[in-house]
Amino acid sequence: MIKKLKSNWLTIALTLVVLISFILSGIIWTNPFQYERPHRENSTSSSQQFTTQSMGDVYLPTTIVRTGKDGQQNLLYSQRANLINDVQRNLCDWKLGRTSEVKTNNSDVYLSYLRNRHSLMLSYPDNVTGEVFNETFDQSIDTNRVKGINHIVIPLNGTHEIYLLRDYHYEVYRVRVNKGDFAKLPKIGRHVRPIPVDHKIIKGNAMMVYPHGFTLPKLAYQVSDQRINNLSTNLLSTNRHTSVTSHEDSDKTVYTDGTNRHLIYDHTNGTVDYENDIGNSNVVATGQLYAHFYNILVKTGMPLDNIRFDQAKDHNRTFIYRTYVEGFPIINTDGYGGAKLQASQSGVERYWMSLYTVQVPLPLSGDQDVKLPSTTSVLNELHASNQFKDITDLRVGYLWKGNSQDSKVVKLVPTYFVKYHHRWVDYTELLK
Question: Can you give the pTM of this predicted structure?
């Protein structure tokens, strides 16, 4: 027997190799996903981006507030759970019915709905259309009636209805819930930290304010930079036989396709300014810009995992998108981590965007919590500095601070931002 094994060892070994190969092939065919690399890993090195972020994901609400039976409001904050996505998945299974108008042009009534007892409220950073709501939550509400939405109020008292609120003219709409599981909505649980908040109308604007001082952590992220060659190719390439040329102009590179489009890349701060004259006949209707600009973001190849719609201005013809971390926007004067897209009525489209985005969170050593004052304290300081008259809005977000020792790492510091002369600035800058 031993002699036979020795004389046929090569045949036996080959047979075992073949059998093992068949077994491994069978495993791969029956469960191939374990052996595939995630598609997202190649998002910044390829000229075409694979994104799992749908249009509804980019236009998600960004804050979630739970109001108790006693009227106490708490911002639901979590570093471990994505509460907004949990609500989105739940609402996508609901069936919403008839929509009716409740009240308009009454700030007192509007404020009472913002403070609706025993409810959950999701808020957008700026107005979105009814079409965007339908896309995000897989619904079909009457968009002829509901022109815009800033807040979604979900009562938890068994009334089987929700309210859609629009800050403009203090509009309140009631939507019947024909089917919906309220029990699955987020609660203040193990991984959720409540931060006391309140809602007020200041200078005619509905604002979420913080009645007490509170803490938020400093954060650190690894910075990802998109390749300019990929971005320029994505924006300038067409089916037409045009060649893209480039030339250096001081600290900028100018790309053009020889027709009506050009792109300027600023080497100093890693920003891109793109312009395309599409002509008067191709102007996109204002109501269609939400979808149009989403498609542009996908085309650029920008990683969209943390990108959210943040603001519309210039009669809703200019949209600003920012990176959000843990429910708060990243704001900085250089536009890092964001994009601004504009489509004029004359047929010229311009896009400003940054090549830098935050991707991978990094640990920070020691106690990194920052104590932020109450909103009243901030407003009092601004009053004392005589800057309050030029302020139209206020919010909490993260300030992008570069790390001088490592350009690939950014520190994010929580602070109050105020809208000062139509732009968001760190409130401490106005106190200097």
Answer: 0.86
